[in-house]
Amino acid sequence: MKILGGKYKGRNFYMPAGIRPTQNVVRAAIFDLLGHDLTGLSFLELFAGSGAVGLEAVSRGASKVVMVEYNDLNARTIRENCELLGIELGGNFSLIHAEAFTTIKRLSEGHKPFDIVFFDPPYGQKMAKKTLKLITSRDILHPQSWVCVQCEVSEKLEIPENLTVLTQRRYGSSYLTLLQRVVEK
Fold it and tell me: Fewer CB within 10 Å, N or C, the chain?
Protein backbone atom coordinates (compact mmCIF):
# COMPACT_ATOMS: atom_id res chain seq x y z
CA MET A 1 0.00 0.00 0.00
CA LYS A 2 1.07 3.60 -0.62
CA ILE A 3 0.42 6.98 0.94
CA LEU A 4 -1.77 8.89 -1.54
CA GLY A 5 -1.07 12.53 -0.74
CA GLY A 6 0.86 15.05 1.29
CA LYS A 7 4.36 14.90 2.73
CA TYR A 8 4.76 11.12 2.37
CA LYS A 9 2.95 10.76 -0.96
CA GLY A 10 4.04 7.64 -2.85
CA ARG A 11 5.77 6.06 0.14
CA ASN A 12 4.96 2.39 0.82
CA PHE A 13 3.84 0.97 4.16
CA TYR A 14 3.18 -2.51 5.55
CA MET A 15 -0.17 -4.25 5.64
CA PRO A 16 -0.70 -6.96 8.30
CA ALA A 17 -2.00 -10.31 7.08
CA GLY A 18 -5.66 -11.11 7.61
CA ILE A 19 -7.13 -7.60 7.68
CA ARG A 20 -9.50 -5.88 5.27
CA PRO A 21 -7.61 -2.67 4.50
CA THR A 22 -9.23 0.59 3.52
CA GLN A 23 -8.61 0.45 -0.22
CA ASN A 24 -6.88 3.29 -2.07
CA VAL A 25 -10.07 4.42 -3.81
CA VAL A 26 -11.88 4.70 -0.45
CA ARG A 27 -8.93 6.43 1.25
CA ALA A 28 -8.83 8.89 -1.66
CA ALA A 29 -12.57 9.49 -1.25
CA ILE A 30 -12.19 10.10 2.49
CA PHE A 31 -9.67 12.87 1.90
CA ASP A 32 -11.59 14.24 -1.07
CA LEU A 33 -14.52 14.69 1.33
CA LEU A 34 -12.51 15.96 4.31
CA GLY A 35 -10.07 18.05 2.33
CA HIS A 36 -6.55 17.36 1.23
CA ASP A 37 -4.93 19.73 3.72
CA LEU A 38 -5.55 18.85 7.36
CA THR A 39 -3.07 21.37 8.75
CA GLY A 40 -3.85 22.18 12.38
CA LEU A 41 -6.60 19.57 12.73
CA SER A 42 -6.76 16.69 15.21
CA PHE A 43 -7.61 13.24 13.85
CA LEU A 44 -8.73 10.05 15.61
CA GLU A 45 -8.67 6.69 13.82
CA LEU A 46 -10.45 3.86 15.62
CA PHE A 47 -9.97 0.19 14.63
CA ALA A 48 -6.80 1.40 12.90
CA GLY A 49 -5.62 -1.92 11.38
CA SER A 50 -2.45 -0.92 9.50
CA GLY A 51 -2.93 2.75 10.37
CA ALA A 52 -3.42 3.59 6.68
CA VAL A 53 -5.96 6.37 7.24
CA GLY A 54 -4.16 7.83 10.26
CA LEU A 55 -0.84 7.78 8.38
CA GLU A 56 -2.54 9.55 5.49
CA ALA A 57 -3.79 12.20 7.95
CA VAL A 58 -0.24 12.70 9.27
CA SER A 59 1.03 13.02 5.70
CA ARG A 60 -1.62 15.64 4.94
CA GLY A 61 -0.59 17.84 7.86
CA ALA A 62 -2.86 16.92 10.79
CA SER A 63 -1.32 18.41 13.92
CA LYS A 64 -2.47 15.56 16.16
CA VAL A 65 -3.23 11.99 15.11
CA VAL A 66 -4.30 9.22 17.47
CA MET A 67 -4.61 5.68 16.09
CA VAL A 68 -6.39 3.08 18.22
CA GLU A 69 -5.81 -0.63 17.59
CA TYR A 70 -6.46 -3.61 19.86
CA ASN A 71 -4.86 -6.45 17.87
CA ASP A 72 -1.20 -7.07 18.80
CA LEU A 73 0.01 -7.79 15.25
CA ASN A 74 -1.79 -4.77 13.83
CA ALA A 75 -0.46 -2.47 16.57
CA ARG A 76 3.07 -3.73 15.91
CA THR A 77 2.56 -3.08 12.18
CA ILE A 78 1.42 0.50 12.89
CA ARG A 79 4.61 1.05 14.92
CA GLU A 80 6.69 -0.39 12.06
CA ASN A 81 4.86 1.81 9.53
CA CYS A 82 5.58 4.91 11.61
CA GLU A 83 9.27 3.93 11.82
CA LEU A 84 9.37 3.26 8.07
CA LEU A 85 7.94 6.72 7.33
CA GLY A 86 9.99 8.49 10.00
CA ILE A 87 6.96 9.42 12.12
CA GLU A 88 7.90 9.59 15.78
CA LEU A 89 5.21 8.18 18.05
CA GLY A 90 4.55 10.10 21.24
CA GLY A 91 3.35 13.64 21.65
CA ASN A 92 1.25 14.68 18.66
CA PHE A 93 1.26 11.31 16.90
CA SER A 94 0.28 8.34 19.01
CA LEU A 95 -0.83 4.75 18.96
CA ILE A 96 -3.13 3.53 21.68
CA HIS A 97 -2.89 -0.25 21.86
CA ALA A 98 -6.27 -0.88 23.46
CA GLU A 99 -9.90 -1.71 22.77
CA ALA A 100 -11.76 1.09 20.94
CA PHE A 101 -14.79 1.47 23.23
CA THR A 102 -12.69 1.68 26.38
CA THR A 103 -10.41 4.18 24.65
CA ILE A 104 -13.32 6.42 23.61
CA LYS A 105 -14.41 6.57 27.25
CA ARG A 106 -10.84 7.36 28.39
CA LEU A 107 -10.38 10.03 25.72
CA SER A 108 -13.62 11.72 26.78
CA GLU A 109 -12.27 12.07 30.33
CA GLY A 110 -9.35 14.11 28.96
CA HIS A 111 -11.74 16.74 27.48
CA LYS A 112 -9.59 17.15 24.37
CA PRO A 113 -12.04 16.76 21.49
CA PHE A 114 -11.07 15.85 17.93
CA ASP A 115 -11.79 17.69 14.71
CA ILE A 116 -12.14 14.45 12.71
CA VAL A 117 -13.00 10.92 13.83
CA PHE A 118 -12.70 8.05 11.35
CA PHE A 119 -13.62 4.45 12.02
CA ASP A 120 -13.95 1.29 10.00
CA PRO A 121 -14.78 -1.50 12.47
CA PRO A 122 -14.50 -5.22 11.66
CA TYR A 123 -17.33 -6.37 9.42
CA GLY A 124 -19.95 -8.90 10.48
CA GLN A 125 -20.10 -7.65 14.09
CA LYS A 126 -22.48 -4.66 13.76
CA MET A 127 -20.01 -2.40 15.58
CA ALA A 128 -20.45 0.78 13.53
CA LYS A 129 -23.79 1.68 15.11
CA LYS A 130 -22.46 1.10 18.63
CA THR A 131 -19.29 3.10 17.91
CA LEU A 132 -21.23 6.03 16.48
CA LYS A 133 -23.54 6.10 19.48
CA LEU A 134 -20.63 6.03 21.94
CA ILE A 135 -18.70 8.76 20.08
CA THR A 136 -21.68 11.12 20.17
CA SER A 137 -22.56 10.39 23.80
CA ARG A 138 -19.00 11.19 24.95
CA ASP A 139 -17.23 14.54 24.84
CA ILE A 140 -14.72 13.81 22.03
CA LEU A 141 -16.12 16.05 19.26
CA HIS A 142 -15.70 19.79 18.66
CA PRO A 143 -18.86 21.75 17.75
CA GLN A 144 -18.13 21.41 14.01
CA SER A 145 -16.35 18.04 14.04
CA TRP A 146 -16.62 15.54 11.22
CA VAL A 147 -17.22 11.83 11.72
CA CYS A 148 -16.37 9.52 8.84
CA VAL A 149 -17.70 5.96 9.02
CA GLN A 150 -16.90 3.05 6.74
CA CYS A 151 -19.16 0.07 7.33
CA GLU A 152 -20.62 -2.83 5.46
CA VAL A 153 -23.69 -2.14 3.34
CA SER A 154 -25.86 -4.48 5.42
CA GLU A 155 -25.27 -2.46 8.61
CA LYS A 156 -27.83 0.29 8.90
CA LEU A 157 -26.47 3.29 10.79
CA GLU A 158 -28.77 5.08 13.20
CA ILE A 159 -27.76 8.73 12.99
CA PRO A 160 -27.84 10.46 16.39
CA GLU A 161 -29.71 13.78 16.60
CA ASN A 162 -26.51 15.77 17.13
CA LEU A 163 -25.04 14.63 13.78
CA THR A 164 -26.15 15.41 10.26
CA VAL A 165 -25.32 13.34 7.17
CA LEU A 166 -23.29 15.33 4.65
CA THR A 167 -22.91 12.49 2.16
CA GLN A 168 -23.03 8.72 1.85
CA ARG A 169 -21.34 6.79 -0.93
CA ARG A 170 -21.16 3.13 -1.76
CA TYR A 171 -17.85 1.42 -2.56
CA GLY A 172 -18.33 -2.28 -3.30
CA SER A 173 -19.64 -3.95 -0.14
CA SER A 174 -19.22 -0.89 2.06
CA TYR A 175 -20.70 2.54 2.66
CA LEU A 176 -18.63 5.60 3.42
CA THR A 177 -20.69 8.08 5.41
CA LEU A 178 -19.53 11.59 6.30
CA LEU A 179 -21.34 13.27 9.16
CA GLN A 180 -20.91 16.59 10.94
CA ARG A 181 -21.76 17.50 14.49
CA VAL A 182 -24.75 19.81 14.81
CA VAL A 183 -24.65 22.26 17.71
CA GLU A 184 -27.80 24.02 18.84
CA LYS A 185 -27.43 27.78 19.19
Answer: C
CA 109 to chain CA centroid, nearest Å: 20
Provide the domain limits for residue 114.
24-181
Does residue 168 lie within any of the structural domains? yes
Residue type, position 185, single letter: K
Number of domains in the chain: 1
User: What is residue 36's three-state secondary structure?
Assistant: coil
The helix-helix angle for 127-137 and 100-109 (nearest 10°) equals 10
Residue 64 backbone phi and psi in degrees, to 5? -145, 130
Over the stretch 115-162, which tens digit does the pLDDT of each residue have?
A: 999 999 988 888 999 999 999 999 899 888 999 999 999 998 999 988
pTM to 2 decimal places: 0.94
- pLDDT band for 184, please (50, 70, 90 cuts): low
Q: Residue type at 121? A: P
Q: Considering the domain boundaries, does residue 19 fall inside one? A: no
The amino acid occupying position 53 is: V
8-47 confidence digits (pLDDT tens):
999 999 988 777 767 788 889 999 999 889 999 999 999 9
In a domain, 1, yes or no: no
37, 39, 28: which is closest to 3 by C-alpha?
Answer: 28
Vertex 63: Cα angle to 58 and 64 (nearest 5): 80
